[in-house]
Amino acid sequence: MRVVSGIQPTGKPHLGNYLGAIVNYVKLQEEAHANGGQCFIFLADLHAISMPHDPAELTRNTREMVATLVACGVDPAKTVLFNQAQVPAHAELQWLLSGTARMGWLNRMTQWKDKAGKNREGQSIALFTYPVLQAADVLLYQATHVPVGEDQKQHLELARDIAQKFNTDFCPEDAPLFTLPEPYIPPAAARIMSLRDGTSKMSKSDPSEMSRISLTDDADTIMKKVKKAKTDAEPLPSEEKGLEDRAEARNLVGIYAALTGKTPQEVLSDHGGQGFGAFKPALGEVLAETLAPINARFLELKDDQEALDAILARGAARARENGLPTLDATYKALGLVRG
Ligand code: TYM
């Protein structure tokens, strides 16, 4: 079992990152550790330069993201925790795979279409080739499990397509080079939505702080944001199908379910018939309880720059070593001479 996943150090990580991905980094870290596998979690800092950014902010966010991940339970003793910028093999493998990835595949990526909008000509090349770097990230370590939220599913399908085409074009049939990675997506929290609009996903780039719960919000802020979350005026239904046309209600029930390990139907069996005046404080409490220890640990870690940099340096050394055999084999399969 090889677990690999990444998170961009852009802005503060939020509840969507936590429930959609980070919770499963920790779950799969424990599984991999128990069964002799390996877990690799990295900060996708090379991806972060595909959009306009402030260099000083990227540096600060990178360290804060390490502190957040550790505070959430990613354990550098069990997981190889690092940033892409210290492992050149990611960028190298991206170039090697660029000969295999097709323009048409990248043109179909919904994230590219959404982010570029009508101004494709004005976008960085990095934003367009972003998914090839993401494919390199996982293929470099022969990932089997990739814990992500729903929004990354298409990028992982592309990684599989690239792997498959490379294997077919350059490897003997009985000795494929790349393992096809499987996305690992949580059932209730695959797509946590904005608290202000149940039709758009919770995101670091939303200008409104009220649209998301940051993992470092304190209990008062959490309660305030939950109480102000957009909802309709109806009480909660007692059956899940009653949520079908109620995006905001469905989102809050989904968050409650993910936090308590229940299914949305179980949450409705307990809270069906309740108005939001009662449900929101219950949700705010569960949220504050879950995030309080993360917040406390984050505050302890965040200013120890030396310790955070040491975690990344150690992780990067292990990542370089682990990625080397696949990188070498890729050069070789392509017929490139390297002395
Ligand atoms: P990023 O930094 O946008 O998000 C990190 C992780 O959080 C998940 N996520 C969500 N899940 C549920 N609901 C939401 N509202 C929500 N918002 C974000 C994302 O699905 C992701 O798992 N391209 C990636 C980073 C990356 C990567 C990789 C991931 C680079 N290389 C290789 C996996 C494997 C990204 O920008 O994630």
Automatic annotation (TrEMBL):
<comment type="subunit">
    <text>Homodimer.</text>
</comment>
<feature type="binding site">
    <location>
        <begin position="201"/>
        <end position="205"/>
    </location>
    <ligand>
        <name>ATP</name>
    </ligand>
</feature>
<dbReference type="InterPro" id="IPR024109">
    <property type="entry name" value="Trp-tRNA-ligase_bac-type"/>
</dbReference>
<feature type="binding site">
    <location>
        <begin position="149"/>
        <end position="151"/>
    </location>
    <ligand>
        <name>ATP</name>
    </ligand>
</feature>
<protein>
    <recommendedName>
        <fullName>Tryptophan--tRNA ligase</fullName>
        <ecNumber>6.1.1.2</ecNumber>
    </recommendedName>
</protein>
<comment type="similarity">
    <text>Belongs to the class-I aminoacyl-tRNA synthetase family.</text>
</comment>
<dbReference type="GO" id="GO:0006436">
    <property type="term" value="P:tryptophanyl-tRNA aminoacylation"/>
</dbReference>
<dbReference type="Pfam" id="PF00579">
    <property type="entry name" value="tRNA-synt_1b"/>
</dbReference>
<dbReference type="InterPro" id="IPR001412">
    <property type="entry name" value="aa-tRNA-synth_I_CS"/>
</dbReference>
<dbReference type="GO" id="GO:0005829">
    <property type="term" value="C:cytosol"/>
</dbReference>
<feature type="binding site">
    <location>
        <position position="192"/>
    </location>
    <ligand>
        <name>ATP</name>
    </ligand>
</feature>
<feature type="binding site">
    <location>
        <begin position="16"/>
        <end position="17"/>
    </location>
    <ligand>
        <name>ATP</name>
    </ligand>
</feature>
<keyword id="KW-0648">Protein biosynthesis</keyword>
<dbReference type="InterPro" id="IPR050203">
    <property type="entry name" value="Trp-tRNA_synthetase"/>
</dbReference>
<keyword id="KW-0963">Cytoplasm</keyword>
<dbReference type="GO" id="GO:0005524">
    <property type="term" value="F:ATP binding"/>
</dbReference>
<dbReference type="InterPro" id="IPR002305">
    <property type="entry name" value="aa-tRNA-synth_Ic"/>
</dbReference>
<feature type="binding site">
    <location>
        <position position="137"/>
    </location>
    <ligand>
        <name>L-tryptophan</name>
    </ligand>
</feature>
<feature type="short sequence motif" description="'HIGH' region">
    <location>
        <begin position="9"/>
        <end position="17"/>
    </location>
</feature>
<keyword id="KW-0067">ATP-binding</keyword>
<feature type="binding site">
    <location>
        <begin position="8"/>
        <end position="10"/>
    </location>
    <ligand>
        <name>ATP</name>
    </ligand>
</feature>
<keyword id="KW-0436">Ligase</keyword>
<keyword id="KW-0547">Nucleotide-binding</keyword>
<feature type="short sequence motif" description="'KMSKS' region">
    <location>
        <begin position="201"/>
        <end position="205"/>
    </location>
</feature>
<dbReference type="InterPro" id="IPR002306">
    <property type="entry name" value="Trp-tRNA-ligase"/>
</dbReference>
<comment type="function">
    <text>Catalyzes the attachment of tryptophan to tRNA(Trp).</text>
</comment>
<dbReference type="GO" id="GO:0004830">
    <property type="term" value="F:tryptophan-tRNA ligase activity"/>
</dbReference>
<keyword id="KW-0030">Aminoacyl-tRNA synthetase</keyword>
